[in-house]
Amino acid sequence: MDDQAIPLDAETKAVEMPEDHREELRLWLRLLTCTTLIEGEVRGRLRERFDVTLPRFDLMAQLDKAPDGMTLSDLSKRMMVSNGNLTGLVDRLVASGHIVRTASPTDRRATVISLTESGRGEFCAMAAEHELWIADLFGGLTEKDRGDLMRLLGKTKLSARRAIQGEGQ
Amino acid sequence: MDDQAIPLDAETKAVEMPEDHREELRLWLRLLTCTTLIEGEVRGRLRERFDVTLPRFDLMAQLDKAPDGMTLSDLSKRMMVSNGNLTGLVDRLVASGHIVRTASPTDRRATVISLTESGRGEFCAMAAEHELWIADLFGGLTEKDRGDLMRLLGKTKLSARRAIQGEGQ
DNA sequence: AGAAATTATTTTAAGCTTAAAACAAATCTG
DNA sequence: CAGATTTGTTTTAAGCTTAAAATAATTTCT
């Protein structure tokens, strides 16, 4: 309980006793900015070029990776959105003929969602252009940059998951 | 129009003629996952701990950095959301007493928004905890990781801005 | 100064999103 | 096997978000 020296940082300014985390905050804000920027651009291009919304595109992208369809629960986990959200989104995509609901043969609670043939066709056309847009948006990064960023984001994902998972303990 | 050799990659598999950009796509999806994961957690904690929504918090965070207030246009640029979106958000924050609208002395079109005293007080309390949550979520990264990630995201931001800016040419 | 273009904000219509509650079917457990 | 819990989905209420059109004030350009 003796007097304690006020810690000084490299620039010899007194720092707050409970260490501040402005650096992490800036990192988070920058991450958010990147995502918002790219997402907004992709949203706009999807609308202008294909008259489709981003959520619709995202949903179809998940289904495209699952030839045998997926349940709503699986979809909601994959897309990281709430269950209730999907109900409406699926309704609209069924109405526009892009996807179909099928009763699950094994579980009478569940419905399996899958792309219709025309839905898959439309999605593939959009996905091909979408991939070019993304490549363009990330075009300022070198191959090494992209590898490094991929690795660091992987680490970030793990870090966040651990922090989220561990909170209930 | 002679026959053309199909290029082979390092693992000796045929690759698509128009080069594919799946790597950039994976990078984008991972970036999006990180943001969605962290954003969802922060949203939930703000609600549980302070009964406040993330957009409200974000708006107050911007105002906190502008002691003399900001116009709606400035706010919408900073927050990267549409103008129309802010109208409603501001209405609700005015109704709850967190912010006030003041007529701009120089421009009769504009309104200046600023935090009320109690709004600033409430925000500061939330911001202090929020900063700890963020530090916790990024806790799995070393100081070097954070520096590297910061730099790479800076480069990503520039890359995206350039791609967006340059599209109209 | 007056017309034209720009800027600041609001309104509108549609769709997205969430949390919480409700419901139904499947699984677990004593 | 019956009651309790979990799981899959929908509903509800509230708020968020966008794009596009409308309105109003300022600035620009003859």
Largest interface: A-B, 50 and 50 residues
CATH topology of the domain at 53-133 in chain A: Arc Repressor Mutant, subunit A
Count the DSSP helices of chain A: 6
Distance between the termini of chain A: 31 Å
CATH top-level class of the domain at 53-133 in chain A: Mainly Alpha
The overall pLDDT average of chain A reads 91
Percentage of residues in DSSP E strands of chain A:
5-15%
Task: Name the quaternary structure.
Answer: homodimer
Q: Level of helix content of chain A? A: 55-70%
* Uncertain stretches of chain A: 10-17
What Rg of chain A, in angstroms, do the CA atoms define?
A: 22 Å
What sequence of helices (H) and strands (E) makes up the elements of chain A? HHEHHEEHH
The number of strands of chain A is 3
Kindly report the spatial arrangement of strands forming the biggest sheet of chain A.
1-3-2
Tell me, briefly, the overall form of chain A: globular
Overall description:
The structure is a homodimer of 169-residue chains. The first copy, chain A, has a domain at 53-133: Arc Repressor Mutant, subunit A. Mean pLDDT of chain A is 91; it is low at 10-17. Chain A has 6 helices and 3 strands. In chain A, strand 2 (99-103) and strand 3 (111-115) form a beta hairpin. The first copy, chain A, is mainly α. At the A-B interface, helix 1, helix 5 and helix 6 of A face helix 1, helix 5 and helix 6 of B.
